[in-house]
Task: inverse folding
DNA sequence: CTGATTTCTTGATATAGGTCAAGTGGCCTT
DNA sequence: AAGGCCACTTGACCTATATCAAGAAATCAG
C-alpha cells in the first residue's frame, strides 16, 4: 500500500480496490516555501492532501492579515466553498515550508463518484466530521479564555508549534502574539 | 406541494417524485415552550425541520450556560455528531416557544439513501454548505468586534430578535447581555 | 562568520468588554 | 389592579487582552 493509500484508509472506510482507485486520481504537486497554493478570488479547482510541509490559510484585511487555519502533514486542504459551489476563493493558502501534496483536480473530483459507489456517502461522513470539529471551535470562542484556547491547541497540534511563526498561531486563536508570549511565561513559573 | 416539500425544494435539488418520497419520511412532532427536544448525553436519534417555533442549542457549564445556536422556522435541527457518529449528544436543545417540527428518526434517516439515489450526494452538499457557514462564523470571532458581530447577526436574523431573550443571543455571539444593551444604546444616538 | 531581517519577549499603558448591583418596565397570574 | 417575575438597561468599577515601543534572540543571506 502506498503512503497515500495508507492515509486515505485512516480517514475513509474503503476496501483495497477502492483505495487504489481513489489514490490513482491524486497527482503529486509541490509548493515552495513562501509560494501560494491558492489566492483569494481565484477559483479553487482542486483538493489536496498534504504529504509533507505546512500551509497557512488566511485573509488579507485592510490593515492586517487574519489566519483562519494552519494545515500540516496528513490533512486535506482546499477552499470548500470554491471547490464545491464554484465561488471565488475566500482564502489565501500559502506554504510556510516546502510542501509536497497529492492533488486531485476538480474534473476528476466531480467524477470520482462514478467509479466508487460509496464515494458520496463516504465524503459526506468526512465533511460531517469536519463540521463537528468546527462546531467545537466555535464553542471554544464562546466558552474559553485565551489561555484555555491556547492550551487546547497546544495539546492537539504540538507539531505546528515548532514550525510556525507565533503570530500566525496567535491570529488563528483570536489573540495577539504578545498574549501567547505572556501565557507561555506564566506557565513556566 | 405540501409546505414541507416546498421547504425541502428550497434546500435540495430533487424532482417532485423524490420530494414526495423524502417528505413522506418526516412525521409531525410538537415540543412545548420550555420543554426539551434533546438533552446532553442522550443519543440524538432524529433529524428535524422546524415548521414553526424556536429552539435554543446550549451547553451547561459549571457556572453558566453557553448558547451555541438558535434555530427557527425553516431550519433543520439535530446534533450531527450524535446522529451520524452515534456519540452522546453534546447539546441541550430546548424550545423557547411552542414548536412544531417534521421529524425523521434515525432508522429512516439511515435508509433514505436506499430510496433516493441522489440522497447522499445531496446531503453532502447540504452539510458542506453548513460547514462553509460555520467557517464564516469562526472568521467572525477572529476578525470582528462585539459590535460588528452583533450587527451581522441582526441583519441576517432579525426574526430571532423579537422572540428570544437577549441573554441567549448575547451568549451565542460570545458577549454579555449588558454589552448588547450598550451597543444598542450607542446605535440610537 | 557577520550583518540584516524577522521573530519573540517584555514593560508600560490603553481599552473593549466583563462583572456586580441597582433600578425600570413589561407582562403574567390571580 | 396588585404582586411577582423576568428581561432589559444603566452606572461604577474591574480585568483580560490589545497596543505600542524597545530590546533580545533566532534565522537567513551572502
Result:
Amino acid at each position: 500500500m502506498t503512503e497515500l493509500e495508507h492515509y486515505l484508509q485512516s480517514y475513509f472506510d474503503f476496501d483495497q480496490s477502492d483505495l487504489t482507485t481513489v489514490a490513482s486520481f491524486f497527482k503529486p504537486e509541490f509548493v515552495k516555501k513562501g509560494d501560494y497554493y491558492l489566492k483569494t478570488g481565484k477559483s479553487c479547482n482542486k483538493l489536496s492532501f498534504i504529504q509533507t510541509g505546512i500551509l497557512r490559510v488566511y485573509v488579507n484585511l485592510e490593515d492586517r492579515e487574519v489566519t483562519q487555519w494552519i494545515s500540516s502533514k496528513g490533512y486535506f486542504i482546499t477552499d470548500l466553498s470554491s471547490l464545491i459551489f464554484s465561488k471565488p476563493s475566500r482564502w489565501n493558502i500559502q506554504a510556510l515550508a516546502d510542501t509536497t501534496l497529492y492533488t486531485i483536480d476538480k474534473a476528476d473530483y466531480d467524477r470520482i463518484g462514478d467509479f466508487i459507489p460509496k464515494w458520496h456517502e463516504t465524503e459526506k461522513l468526512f465533511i460531517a466530521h469536519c463540521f463537528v470539529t468546527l462546531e467545537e471551535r466555535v464553542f471554544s470562542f464562546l466558552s474559553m479564555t485565551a489561555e484555555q484556547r491556547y492550551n487546547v491547541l497546544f495539546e492537539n497540534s504540538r507539531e505546528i508549534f515548532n514550525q510556525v511563526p507565533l503570530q500566525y498561531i496567535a491570529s488563528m486563536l483570536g489573540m495577539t502574539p504578545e498574549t501567547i508570549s505572556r501565557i507561555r511565561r506564566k506557565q513556566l513559573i
